[in-house]
Each structure stands twice: as C-alpha cells, then as structure tokens.
Amino acid sequence: MPSALPYVVAVERLVAADQQTVFDLLADPAQHPLLDGSGSVVSAEPDNPTRLSRGARFAMTMRIGVAYRITNTVVEFDEPRRIAWRHFAGHRWRYVLTAVGDQTLVREEWDPTRVPHLWPWFALSRFPARNRTGMAASLERLADLVAPDLSAGPPPSPAPAGDSG
User: Fold this and answer.
1) Per residue in 24-49, pLDDT tens?
2) Which of 23, 54, 96, 141: disulfide with 77, CB 3.0–4.6 Å?
3) How high is the pLDDT of residue 152?
4) Would you call 69 helix, strand, or coil by DSSP?
5) Which residues, 6+ apart, have CB-to-CB distance to 69 below 8 Å?
6) What is the pLDDT of residue 121?
7) Phi, psi for residue 124 in degrees, rounded to 5
C-alpha cells in the first residue's frame, strides 16, 4: 500500500445556479449538515457565525463511529470563487466555483498536501477513496439545494378558494 498521497482528491459537478448562490450556501455553516454526503456531519453548533469569512471559526458535531465536535477555521475566502477550511489536522476542504454561463462548475477538493506526516495514515485508512464517494454525494445534495428538481416542472397551482377538490 502506498505511503504517500501525491494528489488532491477532487470531484466536480455542474449545477444549475449562479456562483453567488452556491457560494452563499457554502458560506453558511448551518447548511453544512444538509450538504454533507458522507453522513459524518451531524449538526452545526449554535454559536457559529451566520456567514463565514477568512479567519472565521465554526464547529460541527460529527460522527465517524463515535460522536465528536470539530472546530474549523476558514483559510481561503475569495467570494464568490473559492472557500476552504481546515481543522486541527491541517488538511483542507475546498470549494472552487467557476461560472459556466448561468450555471456553476463546483469543484470540491480534499487537500492533504500540507500534512505529509499524515499521508501514511490517510492511505491506510482509505480516506481518499471514502472522501471521493462522500464528496460526489455532497455535490449531488448541493445541486438539489440550489436548484430543486427542475425536471418535475413548476409546482401545481393551489386549488381555487371554495374548491373542495
């Protein structure tokens, strides 16, 4: 089994929303449990900022086997193009947003390049593969949150008053 991770794990998806709409969702830590496709983000802590900014700290209740609390710090913030945070271990979760017409190409990255001393553990624990799967599911959730099922057509009109149906 390799002892090094010479890459950043990344997943991309085109979503039917503009960059600012996507960025606003990512910059709201209360939305992170709704976005998480890995099943590990349980809830946002109530004392989090309502909107993230560079240097902002926010915490999540997590569960990977056991429940725990993790505090993150925003380390990259270029609205509406890029946002990234890290926790004590040092690897980064990053979102890079690129406008494509009236849509947005969302690239989610798990970046362990700043913590080479942890690469053997990441490789043994299969973190890269598990993260890729969870990230793909997260981008599906993000797409649904910013642009609910467009194929279903417009919502039905309410029944006229007095119509018992």
Assistant:
1) 999 999 999 999 999 899 999 999 99
2) 54
3) 47
4) strand
5) 45, 59, 60, 61, 62
6) 72
7) -65, -35
Write the CA distances from 45 to 51, 55, 60, 82, integer angstroms: 13, 17, 5, 23
**CB atoms < 10 A from the CB of 130, how many?**
16
Preceding omega of 112 cis (within 30 degrees of 0): no
Q: How confident is the model at residue 165 (pLDDT cuts 50, 70, 90)?
A: very low
- Residue type present at position 66: V
We report the CATH number of the domain holding residue 24 as 3.30.530.20
What are the pLDDT digits (tens) for 88-110? 888 899 999 999 999 999 999 98
Distance CA 144, CA 147 (A): 5
Quote the tokens at residue 24.
Answer: 């606003």
Length of the chain: 165
Instruction: Give the range of the structural domain holding residue 123, as residue numbers without chain letter.
Output: 9-147
Tell me, yes or no, whether 163 lies in a domain.
no
For the chain, how many structural domains are there in total?
1
